[in-house]
Amino acid sequence: MEDTVDSAVQVEKVSLWRATREIFRDSRSTWKNVLNECPASWRTIRSGMSWCCLLLIINGAFWLFGGLLFASLEGWHESRYKCGALRIRRFFIEELWEQSAILPEDEWRELARQRLIDFEDQLHEAFSAGLTSYTGKRTWGFWDAVAFSMTTVSTIGYGHIVPVTWLGRMITIGYSTFGIPLFLILLAESGLLLTRILKLTWVYIVRFGATPSGKRIYHSKIINCLLRLIHNTINKIFEQGKSKRLVGPLFETFQGIYNNAINSVNTSKTFSVDDQFDISALVAIGLLFLYILWGSILFFLSEDWSPLEAFYFVYITLTTIGFGDYVPQHPLALLTSVVYIIFGLALTGLCLNTIQGELLRKSDNVRSKLCALFGLQLNCNEIVNLGCSASETFVLSETSFPSEPVPLPSEIPLLPEETEPIQLETTEIEKKDQ
């Protein structure tokens, strides 16, 4: 009996190992077939990676320069007032201790009162200069200044450290004037590269699904039951929402977006690996959610945050809201994730533009239904007669016009070139639309 159980377990282990080996073999062969099928796209991706790395090096050098500049300027200002406050506090304690054994009680109290007033004046002066901390840790260290430079040119702007001198503020304006366009170039190129990578990845997933290992995975009972459960739940929510009187058109719009996403996934048409981020809004939401979830796991492991706090921080960062209520404890944690943040900013912009475009296309239908529900009217264009003919002119002053009469537009002779109609060449995009 025990030999039979051991043999069954051994057969199961062999079958699992064989299935894993088949998956690895099919995935490798699929990747080779995709590279042979799309050689130009792969060369474009590799050149895009090289160009993005060069732009990242240029931006990194610019951030290091900004860190050196702001750490020198704002750090000197911080050290000046912070050291003054710390020096007065140290002398205050030492002098009181030395004079306590010499002076009478009344004189000692008067000395302590005067030294305390001096310390309060120094603290007030430092606070007026913009300092908010008197601990031993510097606010404007080098890496803190580099993180400030990066968040400034990326328009995230956490605001946990800010320049307090007028010279520092003016330098920030000039620094961001050149740094923001440089960063936007990196962001645009990263978006194009990310789009091609995502499209080539989708081609790989579709091609892998046609292999025996892919069919075995995609058509497994667990995945089919899970997808069917999610699909039925979403349709049930849409059907319940459509029965509502006021929010019914909105749920109908969301159901249309969901159906378009399902149809785009199930389509069998040709797929173009290009720079156009033409995915459905629902797929964009899911892709953005997975990317934010990945970053949340990274910051949850590196920072003393809860999973919800990490997810909130990543979302606030990638949408460039940048409240600054949650910031990594060490600026190096933010700088080491700069590649994640750059591609995240590009992906967030592409996904939000896709969602915005989808909602704008559906908004006309929703607006017409809501206006019909409330008895409103759309597109009420009216022609108003201003009460003056085309030949009338308005004389503002005698010096406003030249002495010679100005001919009316109908009296101006047409040039020979203007008598013939202008033929415009139809672009390739317009030909496709036609």
From TrEMBL:
Q: Any signal peptide, and if so, which residues?
A: none
Q: Does the keyword Membrane apply?
A: yes
Q: Which residues form a coiled coil?
A: none
Give membrane topology per the record.
Multi-pass membrane protein
Keywords for the protein's UniProt record, in alphabetical order: Ion channel, Ion transport, Membrane, Transmembrane, Transmembrane helix, Transport
* A Pfam cross-reference name: Ion_trans_2
What GO terms in the biological process aspect are recorded for it?
stabilization of membrane potential
Q: Which InterPro entries match?
A: 2pore_dom_K_chnl (IPR003280), K_chnl_dom (IPR013099)
- Where does this protein reside within or beyond the cell? Membrane
- Residue ranges spanning the membrane: these are 51-71, 140-161, 173-194, 279-301, 308-326, 332-352
Could you give one GO CC term from the UniProt record? plasma membrane
According to the entry, every stretch annotated as the Potassium channel domain falls at 134-194, 287-356
Quote one Gene Ontology molecular function term: outward rectifier potassium channel activity
Q: What family name appears in the similarity comment?
A: Belongs to the two pore domain potassium channel (TC 1.A.1.8) family.
Q: What is this protein called?
A: Potassium channel domain-containing protein
- Lineage start: Eukaryota, Metazoa, Ecdysozoa, Arthropoda, Crustacea
